[in-house]
């Protein structure tokens, strides 16, 4: 009863139709998912491809071209296999164990990154970390699919969004706390051993998360049969061939990657400009946390008004911000000022929050029922491919300098403005 009271204070909903037994079951399962998601979100702040890992690469002397691959591998690995994994998830009776398997893979990936940070340097360290990040991201894809399914099975409508929202708020709070700790205690050295220790702690958090999640009590439902889950590849191909609005949305979403791929280059330029000490990483982690804390509520309301316009303005804002940042880098006194980098990062993180909320809202509003599920899975898989291509191109350009890669991403954003404007407005207004 005590757990039920705590849960109902955190997650508010109309429970008039729930019996006392149902309320206790929901509180038990909902609390476990909230704790597990919060532990995972906390680990994510350490295994962060936009802040911690670019800083680690700079400290280890990893070539700039590999820095450009961090975000594409992290994001594409978690999206690319989703269309293929969906039938497997649907044919599994106890789906919480798939989440447990994915969490174990993330723990192993974080642990491998820690070993590389402590024992290797240069190109070798970069390659090992990228391979570990690949395994980490593929495991995350399994957690993403199975987690949503378990949530839908064990928590009623009206409470699921609050669980996700609380996890996001906790993630932002943890990021701010972690960033303050790094800023105050990190010192002026760029010793990667400290980051290796943080990665070990992150691996431990995923172990705790899987132990918590394994205790969820799922209802005994019959899984789908093999016949019911066949043909995803053909369906995906037909969707791209026959649905021009969906095809245009995927193109626009790919061009909106400017706000996702640009932040690591800002972090790398900051580390090279004299902020290589570990304490210099703190403001970026804090900025990421602040974007999570304040961005969701603001942009959520704007997306409900017009997700199309929010995507369009987000792409325009990201490209404009990159242009201003690159112009300021031409001024020696500004380039040597530490504040320009975390401020730019914060603004990019806020813009990316808006773009992310907008495209999620758009894909939900543009379809109904099973078509919506198909849109999400197929668009995520397509984005995995696009991310790898964009990452490879920007990585090659980064060999000429991070600024060159940022110019390329800024141009992508401008193209995203043009394509986004051609989308139909699917919001209520």
From TrEMBL:
The chain crosses the membrane at residues 52-71, 97-117, 123-143, 163-186, 192-213, 250-271, 277-299, 311-332, 338-355, 375-398, 404-423. It holds the Pfam family MFS_1. InterPro entries: MFS, MFS_trans_sf, Sugar_transport-like. Signal peptide: none annotated. The keyword Electron transport does not apply. Keywords: Membrane, Transmembrane, Transmembrane helix. This is MFS transporter.
